[in-house]
């Protein structure tokens, strides 16, 4: 059903683009501190986080006004940063689309940037209707809607952040990709709250391993018994375990931790969750958004990934020491405990500087 929906959207977009195209321009205008630029990135948290290196580069080099059109599911990732001056939440539905379009056209931007790595039908139609002189995007099947494009690097050979950073070339910004990283800045009161919680619950002088059990879909839940098994495995090491969970997965978290429910961390406040990630010594996670947050502080990360029906490079942390187990199946269901431990054990011992007591 989902594949059929995608095909119908692609067909609609192809038909639409046949009648809507922008005049391609070879020269790129000069932007300055007086410029106002709109960046568009809808969808989920991880999708937003991987765009922050580009936003940082543009702000740092041009000091222009940056406005982000975001989704109700990811807008909060653009808060708490000097790189973004204003956030607008995209309103879904026909009425919301019209209202968003009207607002954006009234704001009189100098340029709009499509931050989507793949083609979004909604965003493509929106951009085609915006009265903005410069429309930037990666070279892909909807290229007709842009006035300027830049090469989209191969999915199979490059990280999503490398592909997104290509857009910096349209602003004549020079950058070293090795210096790029995700940007998110938890608020001081969130950091203080997390420090208080950890000081009451753990010995702060010892290694704290965060095990995140929650992801954006049920397909990436590894299973209660396997998480229990890894908790048991870790008892042989001098490490402290903190289980990270969303409120949705709280029942599973309690089943995994048994009598140690005080070692479960959950919060509906994204900023507090992000603050917690900065305090860990290592992260184990099936969720890419959480992994990108760990990259902010260059925390070692071990991931378990679903790479189903795609050859695209996985969304690994860009600046963290990293290893992982990848399955080509649609879920993590058949990823065994032994398969994970075979790779996780040497990774843990290397970065935690510990050996088994057993």
Question: What are its keywords?
Answer:
358 residues; alpha/beta; Rossmann fold; 2 domains; 6-stranded parallel β-sheet; 12 helices; 12 strands
Structure description:
This protein has 358 residues and is an alpha/beta fold. Helix content is 36%, strand content 16%. It has twelve helices and twelve strands. A six-stranded parallel sheet has the order 3-2-1-4-5-6, with helices on one face. Strands 9-8-7-10-11-12 form a six-stranded parallel sheet, sandwiched between helices. The termini are far apart. 37% of the residues are buried.
Q: What is the gist of this entry?
A:
With 358 residues, the protein is of the alpha/beta class. Helices cover 36% and strands 16% of the residues. Strands 3-2-1-4-5-6 form a six-stranded parallel β-sheet, covered by helices on one side.
CATH-assigned homologous superfamily of the largest domain: Glycogen Phosphorylase B
Low-confidence stretches: none
Rg, rounded, reads 22 Å
Average of the residue pLDDT scores:
93
- Strand residue percentage: 15-25%
Task: State the helical fraction.
Answer: 25-40%
Order of helices and strands: HEHHEEHEHEEHHEHEHEHEHEEH
Biggest beta-sheet profile: 6 strands, parallel
Structural class: alpha/beta
- Overall geometry comes to elongated
User: How are strands sequenced across the largest beta sheet?
Assistant: 3-2-1-4-5-6
How many separate structural domains?
2
Query: Would you identify the CATH architecture of the largest domain?
Result: 3-Layer(aba) Sandwich
CATH topology (level 3) name of the largest domain: Rossmann fold
Indicate the CATH class of the largest domain.
Alpha Beta
Distance between the termini: 50 Å
DSSP, total strands: 12
Number of helices: 12
């Amino acid at each position: 059903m989902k594949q059929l929906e995608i095909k119908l959207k692609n067909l609609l977009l192809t038909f639409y683009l046949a009648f809507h195209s922008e005049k391609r321009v070879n020269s790129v205008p000069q932007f300055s501190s007086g410029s106002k630029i709109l960046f568009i990135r809808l969808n989920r948290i991880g999708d937003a986080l991987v765009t922050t290196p580009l936003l940082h580069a543009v702000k740092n080099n041009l000091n222009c006004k940056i406005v982000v059109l975001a989704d109700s599911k990811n807008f909060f990732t653009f808060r708490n940063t000097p790189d973004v001056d204003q956030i607008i939440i995209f309103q879904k539905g026909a009425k919301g689309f019209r209202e968003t379009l009207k607002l954006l056209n009234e704001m009189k931007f100098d340029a709009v940037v499509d931050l989507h790595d793949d083609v979004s039908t909604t965003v493509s139609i929106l951009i085609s209707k915006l009265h903005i002189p410069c429309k930037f995007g990666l070279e892909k099947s909807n290229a007709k809607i842009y006035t300027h494009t830049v090469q989209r690097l191969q999915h199979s050979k490059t990280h999503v952040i490398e592909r997104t950073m290509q857009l910096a070339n349209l602003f004549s910004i020079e950058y070293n990709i090795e210096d790029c990283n995700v940007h998110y800045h938890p608020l001081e009161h969130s950091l203080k709250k997390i420090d208080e919680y950890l000081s009451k619950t753990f010995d702060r002088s010892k290694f704290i391993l965060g095990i995140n059990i929650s992801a954006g879909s049920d397909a990436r839940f590894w299973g209660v018994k396997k998480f229990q098994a890894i908790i048991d495995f870790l008892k042989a090491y001098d490490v402290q375990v903190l289980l990270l969970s969303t409120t949705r997965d709280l029942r599973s978290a309690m089943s995994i931790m048994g009598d140690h429910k005080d070692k479960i961390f959950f919060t509906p406040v994204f900023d507090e969750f992000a603050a917690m990630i900065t305090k860990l010594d290592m992260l184990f996670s099936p969720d890419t958004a959480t992994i990108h947050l760990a990259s902010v502080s260059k925390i070692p990360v071990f991931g378990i990934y679903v790479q189903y029906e795609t050859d695209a490079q996985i969304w690994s942390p860009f600046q963290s020491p990293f290893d992982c187990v990848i399955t080509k199946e649609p879920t993590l269901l058949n990823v065994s405990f032994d398969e994970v431990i075979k790779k996780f054990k040497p990774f843990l011992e290397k970065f935690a500087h510990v050996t088994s007591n057993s």
